[in-house]
Amino acid sequence: DALSSFYYNASNSYHLFFQGFTLADNDDHLSCEISSGDASCLFETVGENPDFYESFVDCIESLRTTDSTPVNNDKSALALVAESTMTSLKQFPNSIEEDEELLESEDLTDLQINAVRARRDEKLCLKKVRLFSEDVRNAMETGLW
């Protein structure tokens, strides 16, 4: 008899936190969070939703309505998002490429594999958010947004 399993379409961070494991080749499902003052933004990609549009709309609104965030327009909010993602990325001791090399090695335990996958996926998400915020900012400056 065949046994079929279905795992909720979610990021490796979600799987690790709630189910105790991660999945290989799960780059379509990423999540990460950035914060500034008492405002925070959660970004998630699920399957074919790589552009973060809804997350960005919510994030910009959150940043503009939070008292502790010095943001008075969308361009300022986008700059803050880009800056926050860069700050978060710089806090990691290694790069996405180094994580990929680690995952290719056969020296890692299952726990280490889970940790590296979750860390790598968070970095991928932060990088996508930063690039998207820069694209939106450029589109705003050229009148395309």
Protein architecture, described:
- By secondary structure, the chain is mostly helical.
- It has a single domain, classed as set domain protein methyltransferase, domain 2.
- 54% of the residues lie in helices and 11% in strands.
- The protein has helices at residues 12-19, 53-65, 74-90, 96-104, 110-141, and strands at residues 29-36, 39-46.
- The chain has a two-stranded antiparallel ribbon.
- A hairpin with a 2-residue loop joins strand 1 and strand 2.
- The protein is elongated.
- InterPro entries: Rubisco_LSMT_subst-bd, Rubisco_LSMT_subst-bd_sf.
- Residues 65-123 form the Rubisco LSMT substrate-binding domain.
- This is Rubisco LSMT substrate-binding domain-containing protein.
- It comes from Spongospora subterranea.
